[in-house]
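ok posting inputs for the manganese (II) ion job
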Amino acid sequence: MAISIKKITEHIGAEIDCDVRLRELSESDFIDVKKAFDEHSVLVFRGQLLSDEDQISFSERFGSLETTVNSNPEGGGTVMTVLSNVDQQNKVIPPEDKRMVFNTGNQMWHTDSSFKRVPALMSLLSGREVPSIGGETQFASMRAAYGSLADQKKMELDDLVCMHDFAYSRALIDPNLLTNDDKAEVPPVRQAMVRKNPVHKKKNLFLGAHASYIEGWDLEESRKLIAELNEKITHPDFVYSHSWKKDDLLIWDNRTVLHRGRPWDRNQKRIMHRTTVVGELTVY
Ligand code: OGA
Ligand code: MN
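and the output
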C-alpha cells in the first residue's frame, strides 16, 4: 500500500498521501484512488512533480482525454490545456488582455465541458507555478446539495433537462467575447438536471454557469430555479477551498462538483496544466 486517504471536509474532498510518484502507482492503489474519487469528488495530491507526459499518462488511466484547440498556438488539438498568465518571453500577461479576460470565465462556478454533448468525467489540474496568496480553486458538492433538498423537491427535479450553453456563460462576462463563428461551434446541449453515480447510485444536481434554461420551461422561471439551486450548491457548508502549493495535483469529479478559480495579485505568475477525461451522455 503506497497511499493513505484522509477526508478533508464532511461533504467534499480527500487528501491522498502517496509515497510513490504517480506514474509508479500500482493497479491496486489505483483502484483505491478511483474509489476515493467516486466517494469524495475532489482528491488532493501534494508534492507531485509531474512532467506533461506523466500527467497525460496518469490521466489516461481513467479514460480517454478531451482535446482543446484554442490553447495550442501551433493549431490542432492538444490534450494538455495550459492556464497561464505568462507569455513566451516569461513575462506576466496583463489582466485586460483578451486571453486573460476569456479565462476569467473560470472564476464563475461551473463544471468543465457541461456545454459539450458528452460532458467531462474529471479534470486533473497541476499547479506548476502558483501565487503566494489568492488564486485558490474552490469546489462545491452538487451531491450534498441534492441530499439537502426535501423529497418533494427532489421528485420535481429528477426528470428535468437543462440546456447548457457556452455562449450564454461567456455573455455574462462580455456579450462580445465570442464571435458568431465561435458560437456556431458550441451550440447549446441538453443535460440531465439530476445525475446518479454509476457505482454507489447516489444522486446529484448538475448545473453551474453554463446552465442556461430548463427545457420546456418559461425562460424567467428557468433562470430563477437555476439561480436558486446554484446558490444552494455553493453554500459554504458544501464548499472546499484549495490553497495551492507548487506541485499540487487536484482531481475533481465534473459530474458532481462545481468549481471556480479565485482572483490573485496579477503581478504574480500562475501556471496550471490541465488534462480532462471524457465522460458520458447524461440524456439520450
Ligand atoms: C479549470 C478551472 C480554475 C482555476 O482548470 O477548469 O476552472 O483555479 N480552473 O484555475
Ligand atoms: Mn474549469
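notes: The CA atoms of residues 81 and 274 lie 5 Å apart. Residues 3-278 form a domain with the Double-stranded beta-helix fold (CATH 3.60.130.10).
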